Amino acid sequence: DLNSMNEQAASRGLQFYPNPAQEWVRIENAAGSTLRLYNLQGQLLLERRAETESVQIPIQHLSPGTYVLMQFSNKQIQTGKLLVR
């Protein structure tokens, strides 16, 4: 059943690691989604279309602090807080 598959995928939530991170962050189950990274002021810092299941994003240029990672896919939006050291 397609609905139960979508519910199972949604229940896993946004999966990314390491957190806190220093040089890069890897997002899992990302294929076909759009990934966005915002600072706490709401400024979009990065937007990337994920073509593969696992995507690694460099973050060494970011200042230490808290950021919001969002994944947009199939009418779903998942969010997570990313801590950068």
Order of SSEs, N→C? HEEEEEEE
Overall pLDDT confidence: 88
Number of helical regions: 1
Task: Estimate the global geometry from the Cα principal axes.
Answer: globular
Largest sheet, order of strands side by side? 4-3-6-7
User: Separation of termini?
Assistant: 42 Å
Number of strands: 7
Percent strand? over 45%
Residues in helix, %: 10-25%
Find the structural class using helix and strand composition: mainly beta
- Rounded to an integer in angstroms, the radius of gyration calculated over CA atoms is 13 Å
Regions with little confidence, pLDDT below 50 for 5+ residues: 1-11
Largest sheet: 4 strands, antiparallel
Task: Tell me what the structure shows.
The chain has 85 residues and is mainly beta. The chain is 13% helix and 49% strand. Strands 4-3-6-7 form a four-stranded antiparallel sheet, with no helix packed on it. It has a three-stranded antiparallel sheet with strand order 1-2-5, with no helix packed on it. Strand 3 (34-39) and strand 4 form a beta hairpin. The longest helix has 11 residues, at 2-12.
